[in-house]
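U., I forgot to send this yesterday:
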Amino acid sequence: MRSFLTALGIIIGVGAVIATISIGQGAKREVEKRFESMGTNLLFVRPGSRSFRGVHGGGGTYQNITPGDAKAIAEKADAVKYISPSVSTRAQIIYGNKNWNTSIYGVGDKYPEIRNWEVDEGIFFDEYMVRSGQKVCVLGSEVNKNLFEGADPIGQIIRIKKIPFRVIGVLKSRGESGGWF
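Result:
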């Protein structure tokens, strides 16, 4: 009788493990299928809900997603092809005696592949430039047109919030107002 109960316990335990794994894989396939049905291959992951004085809603601050979080997403999510951190703000960009108020984006080196953006002049920054914290930037075509008025911007120094950045590239025009990285 003891042998029978032991065998029964093992069978139930193995069955439970197999069922749990199957349910997890089925849920994963279902989530991937739902993302595919949305007709997009772009997913933005933002930190949890905003809170202000203990009330969740539209105001307040986010808790940041860390580089470790991004690395974990890249390692665990098989369907993820590229991953890039992103922050944005608005600020004045200054070159010489000219300035332009625009959106400023801080992104990773894979961002052009994610957004299907092409560089028209120069280069986009690479992983080494990002990791070493080089003060380089890529201008949007609209910012380039307004600050440089046809002059070559590559190698020039611009200032954003009083911090100097060396221009290494310009994005191709996409028919929209363009931004900076």
